[in-house]
Each structure stands twice: as structure tokens, then as C-alpha cells.
Amino acid sequence: MLCPTHATPFLMPFLSHPTMGSEVAVVGELPQLPPLEMTAVDAAEHEECVTPRSEEPVLVCPPAPRKPRPPKRTSPESPPREFFPVPRDLASVFLPLPPTKRIRVV
Prior knowledge:
Residues 49-84 are annotated as: Disordered. By secondary structure, the chain is mostly loops. The chain has 2 helices and no strands. The chain has helices at residues 12-15, 18-21. The longest helix has 4 residues, at 12-15. The chain is elongated.
């Protein structure tokens, strides 16, 4: 919160607003923090930063997900087979190739 005595001229119109002026409260000083106590560190006690290395991994990865099994097929009633009449001379059904087309033997 701003103290009205320390408000800048820019903020004065906002602080003089009737609804906002009632919300401004005088803030006291902040409490003093106790001083920090520091101790000296011997060079023998000080360790350099190193990357930790171990034989066994700390975390074990889970196995890869398995492919889902296909659903079992239920055999619905198969439709009845239909047979078509075939002429006695089956070669008459196919069209002959023109004489320019030849089968190449390699």
C-alpha cells in the first residue's frame, strides 16, 4: 500500500478518489532482519562439484508397451456359395491378342 504522504503527483488523483482514499492505510516500517552469520570453510572440507556416477541406475525404465492382441473372430454364418455356369469351351471366353503383341521368351 502507498502512504499518502509519499505519493507522487501522478498517483494523487487515484488516491483522492472517494472510494480508494478510504482503502489507503499507513504502513509502518518493516521489521529489522537479524544479521546473517557466516562461517569460514576449510579447503580440506570443501569438495569440488562432480557428476555422481554409480553402477546401478537409480530409476528403472518400464518395458515398452505391448501391441494389443487382435480380437478373436467370431465366425458368422458364411453366405452360401454361388456357382456360375461355365461354357464347355473356356477358351472362347477370352479375347485373342492382336498379332503385333508377342510373348517374349527371355
